[in-house]
Amino acid sequence: MNIKNKTVLVTGSTDGVGRLVARRLADQGSRVLIHGRDRTRGEQLLKEIRAADRGSAAFLPADFSSLAEVRRLADTVRQECDRLDVLINNAGIGSGGSAGKREASQDGYELRFAVNYLAGFLLTRILMPTVMLGKPARIVNVSSLGQHPIDFDEVMLTRDYSGSRAYAQSKLAQIMFTFDLAREMDPEIVTANCLHPATYMATTMVRQSGVTPISTVEEGADAILNLAVADELDGTSGHFYNGLQRSKANPQAYDDTARERLRMLSLQLTGLT
Fold first, then answer.
1. Which one of 24, 114, 149, 183 has the fewest beta carbons within 10 angstroms of its own beta carbon?
2. pLDDT number for residue 203
């Protein structure tokens, strides 16, 4: 895909791999919508992109622990863009390290499920008409190899909470959502794929979890950009990738009944029903 003059929204792009992806897309001449919570970091990235004078950018702040802010972000994108060519759902938080303390979002949901999954689900659903105007458009969901099956009787993990399980559950939910999108959409209009970009990249999230990085953000950015712009993936939809290679997700991702349960729950929790 020739990304020049295309409009791309990269969530979670003021730090880590998302920041590098946004910068590379701008360097290729695209219009990048930068998202994050930290206005200072967002403004700094804007300055860098404008100084390079290859693409353009705008910073759209939003806290993904609030579904109201997700809606506000979506409304801003719809007002400012006549189309959205690529949507990269990259924003997320890690397992929380060794603290192991359960946290809740502003809407009262388990925080990792809310930020890593529900926010992207809501944003994508609201923006879908705008994405379809960018045909052929692409949706890329940044997930993980760390996946845990969802117990639909205990989605909010109110008992025996584990940060690693909360994180892995939210990442599997992202994959299940991706597969649903691919099933719904004509791949000639919109494709949807997801990936594990790289293992333990040198990011703030990884460091905060207490893990020593073993991969670079450059490796992760290469994998994300492959799904976002590679010509050979035109019309390719509904797949999970490990880096640059197509891979297999947790078996629950291929369970139609489980995906339907997640879809109905997600519509209910985000108020889209």
1. 183
2. 77
Give the structural domain span for 109.
7-270
Selecting among 167, 200, 241, 254, the annotated active-site residue is 167
Q: Pairing relation of β-strands 240-242 and 245-247?
A: antiparallel
Distance CA 152, CA 155 (A): 5
- For residue 58, the domain's CATH number is 3.40.50.720
Reduced to 3 states (helix: H, G, I; strand: E, B; else coil), residue 60 is strand
Can you read off the two tokens belonging to residue 94?
Answer: 């890690």
pLDDT in tens, 88-141: 999 999 988 656 799 999 999 999 999 999 999 999 999 999 999 999 999 999
- Bridge-based pairing state of the strands 56-61 and 86-89: unpaired
| 161: annotated active-site residue | no
* pLDDT more than 70, % of the chain: 97
